[in-house]
Structures are given as C-alpha cells and as structure tokens.
Write a structure and sequence with these properties.
There is one protein chain. The protein has 14 helices and no strands. The chain is elongated, with a radius of gyration of 47 Å. This is Retrovirus-related Pol polyprotein from transposon 297.
Length: 290
C-alpha cells in the first residue's frame, strides 16, 4: 500500500513538472491548466475518502494509534500502582519490625549466646543496619553494663558501632580460656542436676578447645562410682551415655549428693572460721609477752 502511494505521488509530480516545463504561459492557459489540475489532482491513498481501501487503512492506522496510547497509559498506571504498593509494604515492614523485635535482658553469664540470639531476631525482623542493631543492644543493657560501654554509647564509632559494642561486652563478660578449663576440671559437679544437664554445661564451657575423649573422661569422673562402672563397658556417644546415666541415677540420690556437698562446704567454712578465731585470739598475748 505504501509502495503504491509513493508511486502515485511521484507520477503526479512528474506529470505536473512536464506540463510546467514547456515555457511561459498566459492567463487563459493558466486557467485551463488549473481546471485540468483540479480534475486530475494527485490524491494521497491514506486520505482519499472516496476509496474503500483507503478508508480501511485510515481505520487501521487509528486503531493502532489508539492501541499504542492505551498500552502506554496502562503501563504508566501499572508503574505508579506498583510503586505505591511497594512503598506501603516497605513502611508496613518497618513498622512491624519495630513492634515485633523483643529484646531479651542481657545475660552476663554467656553474652555470646545472647548476642547471637539477638542477631537472629534482628535478621528475622529485616534489620541489618549497624546503627539500628547498636540501639537495640543498648536497650537490653542494665546499669552495670552501661557503665562498661559508656564511652561507646556517648561517642559511637562512625563505622560498625554494633561490632564495637559487641566486642567490648564479650571481652568483659566472657571468661578466659584458662578460667573455663579450670571451672570445667575442678569446680563443676553433678549436684542436684541430671547428668545430661551437666554434660551440656561442660560442653558449653569446653567449646572447641577439648577433644571428645577428654570431655568424656571428665564427665564420667563427676558421676557416682557404680554409674561409671556401668557406662565403662558402653561404646555409645557421649550424649547417649548421659541419657543412660539419667535413667540409672535416681532423683533421691542426686538430692542426697547435693546435701552431702553442702554439708562438706559448711564444714570447711566452719573449720576456717575456727582457725581465724584462734589466730586473732593469740595475737594480743604475743604482744603482751614482749
């Protein structure tokens, strides 16, 4: 269709130029040529209303233009609607995060576990910014912890303030490696606990700095003699041995063991007090004799 239209236009202009190139014309010839030109004017196929083919082409062009316009408007409306929804969703997420994050109280006995738990809660709430995590940790601190990290709170570092706060708290409250091993070897006793609970605490103290065989040996030493003899013939994992010990040791025996430990401790304290009283009572006599 376009090819035929260009051909018709070119032919019309060619005929017009051939007629006008014959030389100067007078007024009558001009009128005659104008009448012929009016009868044989060059028409554009797209705008010739007398032809059915040309009118259908016009309708097609207009339909295409309207379709493009509708598609453009639809795309713009979709972009605007998507932006508004995403913006509202982000604001709702921020509000939910602020409400749903519940900060637990600071645990001085094991701050690493507490801070790890708090980190997981912040991740679930969608909070990943350092300064936001920094403020959440501060809200869980008591007066004693605030005194330790007071300089960081008043002048937080420009980069990674949460990491600096975490490092300070862990360095102050986490026991040294020697202290943990000393507690593990000398101070931890069964008492009124189940053997499985004792094993969990021993494993927490040991961390990755002790082999499984050494931990097993220290754990069995905390158990009564008859339980050690029963478990010595088993090759099960340490956790399985602890469960077996839970079933072997009666609850009454654990209470009796706790009472025995308390009596022994009170006896030691009483003997030390008696020694101190003797030493203080002898002091004035020595000075008087001199």
């Amino acid at each position: 269709m376009l090819r035929s239209w260009f051909a018709a236009v070119a032919e019309g202009y060619k005929n017009g130029e051939s007629k006008q190139s014959s030389g100067p014309i007078n007024e009558e010839e001009r009128k005659t040529i104008y009448a012929k030109e009016k009868n044989n004017r060059v028409t554009c196929p797209f705008f010739d209303r007398g032809s059915n083919v040309n009118s259908s082409a016009i309708r097609t062009v207009f339909m295409i233009m309207i379709s493009c316009l509708l598609y453009t408007v639809k795309s713009i409306l979709w972009i605007i609607f998507t932006f508004d929804v995403s913006h509202e969703d982000s604001e709702a997420t921020i509000n939910i995060s602020c409400v749903s994050v519940k900060v637990p109280p600071f645990w001085r006995a094991n701050p690493e576990i507490l801070l790890s738990q708090m980190k997981k809660r912040l991740i679930l709430a969608g909070i990943t910014i350092e300064i936001t995590k920094f403020h959440h940790v501060i809200s869980a601190l008591q007066s004693e912890e605030l005194g330790i990290v007071g300089d960081i709170i008043l002048n937080p570092p420009a980069e990674k303030p949460y990491k600096a706060l975490r490092t300070r708290l862990c360095s102050q409250y986490v026991d040294s490696e020697k202290q943990r091993l000393r507690d593990l070897i000398y101070r931890m006793q069964l008492g009124d606990r189940k053997p499985s609970c004792l094993l969990l605490e021993m494993r927490n103290k040991a961390g990755n700095r002790m082999t499984e065989e050494l931990l097993k040996s220290l754990f069995l030493q905390r158990l009564p003699t008859y339980v050690q003899q029963i478990l010595a013939i088993s090759n099960d994992q340490l956790e399985k041995l602890a469960e077996m010990a839970d079933g072997i040791i009666p609850r009454r025996f654990m209470r009796l063991t706790l009472r025995t430990d308390i009596k022994t401790t009170l006896r030691d304290i009483s003997s030390r007090l008696s020694t101190c009283e003797r030493s203080t009572s002898r002091g004035p006599e020595r000075r008087f004799c001199r």
